[in-house]
């Protein structure tokens, strides 16, 4: 009853599909295995990309005992049993799933056994270990990222499973149509476990034809594929990577890339994140270069939130296209961040007396507000007057850009006022 994905796990390093940057000839894990100089490691990446397979292959190639535990669900006692086994029989390779959920008591127990080499720990996680894993564990392990498998990798593994008579489906007379194989390699987004699960379900639930042949068509594969989102856990790495790529694509004026990442977020039905991020992008990256586009973005987000999916995709797409093709300016965020840096570093002086509140009795005795000049009483509603603290009177935070007509005109006015103030 073991699933196909389990039975097809590699028995040695040569059988690992994908992740050739780690297990290919001359690469670091291959070198560790060849030299039998294993060190503890953490493998992190999306589900179904080969973390458990690599651990199993390392154990098979080195002939060390291989044990698998889950940091979240298995107890400290089970951990102790693995350590006792290592003390009596030699080194044990321990695959610890969900290592980011390892509790401190389990961690404290495990650390000495990692240091003396009794346990070679292979931690597996979908979370970024630099964020989610305790530094004490990180400092004793090497960290390797694994990536979604390519379509060719998936096809290779599927064909291997179809031919393997001992562990795979080779004992069945199966004909997998080319377009079904293509869909299997494409629609699982690099997750080999999902591909093999769908293949097994398709083959074992399809009746043979008159020639005793099980023909797997595109429609059958589609029926057996579990819908999988490119954006995984909304608190996970893939989610934040997608948001980052979304903003950077708009900032870089790449319409097609921005629409691609918008589609990922739409597929995840994450309208709140899209709304927040899109308004942030509008003000941060387009800003004063095209304020009408910023305003239209806010309106597009309001429309999307009011109508909901699937129709919300239309105003969102319109806004993304406009922001991509709009002139860009980040002068606003640079200006306020520069001012904030001064405040946080203590670089500020006293507010000039003529700007201080003068509405209360006694303010005049203090000299507060007595020499203030009301700009609307002067021609063009402007009068030369100091506003910054005296110690910062020449400070400049805003540096206009000329990437759009609106900010170009703002910049011209800014420079005129500066010149008049300095006369």
Automatic annotation (TrEMBL):
Record bears the keyword Nucleotide-binding: yes
Matching SUPFAM superfamilies: P-loop containing nucleoside triphosphate hydrolases, post-AAA+ oligomerization domain-like
Gene3D superfamilies on file: 1.10.8.60, 1.20.272.10, DNA polymerase III clamp loader subunits, C-terminal domain (1.10.3710.10), P-loop containing nucleotide triphosphate hydrolases (3.40.50.300)
Keyword Electron transport: no
Domain of life: Bacteria
Keywords carried by this UniProt record: ATP-binding, Nucleotide-binding
Domain AAA+ ATPase: 37-149
SMART domains according to UniProt: AAA (SM00382)
Molecular function in Gene Ontology: ATP binding; ATP hydrolysis activity; DNA binding; enzyme activator activity; single-stranded DNA helicase activity
GO-annotated biological processes: DNA synthesis involved in DNA repair; DNA-templated DNA replication
Family: Belongs to the AAA ATPase family. RarA/MGS1/WRNIP1 subfamily.
Protein name according to UniProt: Replication-associated recombination protein A
């Amino acid at each position: 009853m073991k699933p196909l994905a389990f039975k097809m796990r590699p028995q040695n390093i040569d059988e690992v599909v994908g992740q050739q940057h780690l297990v290919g000839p001359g690469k670091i894990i291959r070198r560790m295995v060849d030299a039998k100089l294993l060190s503890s490691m953490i493998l992190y990446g999306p589900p179904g990309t080969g973390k458990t397979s690599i651990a199993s292959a390392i154990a098979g190639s080195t002939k060390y005992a291989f044990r698998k535990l889950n940091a979240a669900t298995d107890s400290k006692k089970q951990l102790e049993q693995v350590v006792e086994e290592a003390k009596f029989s030699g080194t044990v390779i321990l695959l610890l799933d969900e290592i980011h959920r390892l509790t401190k008591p389990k961690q404290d127990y495990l650390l000495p056994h990692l240091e003396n080499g009794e346990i070679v720990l292979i931690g597996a996680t979908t979370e970024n270990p630099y964020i989610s894993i305790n530094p004490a564990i990180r400092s004793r392990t090497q960290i390797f990222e694994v990536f979604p498998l390519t379509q060719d990798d998936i096809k290779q593994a599927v064909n291997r499973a179809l031919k393997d008579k001992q562990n795979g489906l080779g004992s069945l007379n199966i004909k997998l149509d080319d377009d079904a194989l293509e869909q299997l390699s494409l629609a699982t987004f690099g997750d080999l476990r999902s591909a093999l699960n769908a293949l097994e379900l398709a083959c074992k639930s399809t009746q043979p034809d008159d020639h005793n042949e099980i023909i797997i068509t595109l429609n059958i594969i589609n029926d057996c594929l579990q819908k999988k989102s490119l954006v995984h856990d909304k608190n996970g790495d893939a989610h934040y990577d997608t948001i980052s790529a979304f903003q950077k694509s708009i900032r870089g004026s790449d319409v097609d890339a921005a629409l691609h990442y918008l589609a990922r977020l739409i597929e995840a039905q994450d309208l709140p994140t899209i709304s927040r991020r899109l308004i942030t992008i509008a003000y941060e990256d387009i800003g004063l270069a095209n304020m009408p586009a910023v305003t239209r973005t806010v309106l597009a987000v309001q429309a999307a939130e009011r109508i909901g999916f699937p129709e919300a995709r239309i105003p969102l797409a319109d806004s993304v296209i406009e922001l991509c093709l709009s002139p860009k300016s980040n002068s606003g965020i640079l200006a306020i961040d520069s001012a904030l840096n001064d405040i946080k570093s203590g670089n500020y002086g006293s507010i000039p007396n003529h700007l201080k509140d003068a509405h209360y009795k006694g303010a005049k005795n203090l000299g507060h507000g007595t020499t203030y000049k009301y700009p609307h009483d002067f021609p063009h509603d402007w009068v030369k007057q100091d506003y910054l603290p005296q110690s910062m009177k020449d400070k400049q935070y805003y540096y206009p850009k000329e990437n759009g007509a609106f900010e170009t005109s703002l910049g011209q006015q800014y420079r005129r006022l500066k010149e008049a103030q300095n006369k």
